[in-house]
Amino acid sequence: MARIVMKFGGTSMAGTERIRRVANIVRRQQAAGHEVAVVVSAMAGETDRLVNFCREANALYDPAEYDVVVASGEQVTSGLLALTLQSLGCKARSWLGWQMPINTVEAHSKARVQTIDAPELLDSLGRGEIAVIPGFQGVSSENRITTLGRGGSDTSAVAVAAAIGADRCDIYTDVDGVYTTDPRIVAKARKQKAVTYEEMLELASVGAKVLQTRSVGLAMKEGVRIQVLSSFLGDDAPPADDLPGTLIVSDTEMDAILEEGEMERQHVTGIAHDKNEAKIILTRVPDKPGAVANIFEPLAGASINVDMIIQNVGRDKGETDVTFTVPQTDLARAQALLEDQRGNIGFNRIITDDHIAKISVVGVGMKSHAGVASTMFKSLADRAINIQAITTSEIKVSVIIDEDETELAVRVLHTAYGLDAAE
Ligand code: ASP
Ligand code: MG
After folding, report:
1. Could you tell which of 11, 40, 47, 160 is best to mutate to test the pocket of ligand 1, judged by most ligand atoms within 8 Å of the CB?
2. pTM, whole model, 2 decimals?
3. Where do the domains of the chain lie, and which CATH numbers do they carry?
4. Residues 37-54: what's their mean pLDDT?
């Protein structure tokens, strides 16, 4: 017997028909002899609808009341799933955020889980009851409802799994696993049997939007084993114990999986692309201490996330060009802020470009293998794809290229690193 957390997203919960399918998947998982807790999202589109109501009611809405409104979507789906499970003859009940409770910090609309007290829930699981837990919500020390930020029910699921010492946290979603790259771009993309937390964190942060990035960070910290798998299952699909999806695991478990000889460790595990960034170049910035701080302090103050930064080699007159990227949605704001600070920073021109893409190759294998970056540069050069900026971490190399070349670059790299599926 194992203890399993199952999480279903908004698409799976959209309407009673789909909830019935979810209930069947849950019922079969329990019938395989396990203790089962289920974490659910609101029906697809519901949270957006609720956010809009808040805006209409009061443009300057109080985040505490916003949380009361938006948390309701998950209350509805958790109750409906419990009802549906009961109709199938299962023992099931819902556990709202304040009932477990899931204690979070006070920060309304972007709360973080602090502790989860689960003794009663564990008793209930022990009696063979299925626990249905609304994702996304918690309770603050002031005894008010909080929410964890958009996409937060992945994090709820991982937090619950950690709290009850689950053997596995299965995240059912609209893809059937983590691929070597976007299968819509590369037909020969392969589904991975396993990736490490570190790899998943890097992949999530560069555009592979399978899970909320925060949930992966939490899983790594708490050692929660995640499986990503498809919720579009046939009605006779077996329970997920034979691991049909992709496991997200520690380095140690990854080594064990590799030793079983099921696969070889690749230097590069995945290739991600992200078209949501924009590039800003400031020309002729004074090349002196404090100049770069003057640029990035105001951006940080406005919560604008800067990703890549390149300072060119200084020119003769004590000046240099500084290039960096920001999310496309923040470009106008960043530009206005910088214009505002022109006197303080001291630059000549702002050049912006939102027609760029970031391509990243990710893999823990890079730590012990040289030549990954040079393979990337050479492969792109062979196709005359120009690299505008580069950043690296221990397990990732990212480049900025022209957005029009995204698909070509991803395909070329997928082949270059030997990731293409055999014909
Ligand atoms: N319903 C929330 C949202 O749409 C949380 C989630 O589904 O993860 O952001
Ligand atoms: Mg989601």
Report:
1. 47
2. 0.87
3. 3-175+210-256 (3.40.1160.10), 270-416 (3.30.2130.10)
4. 98
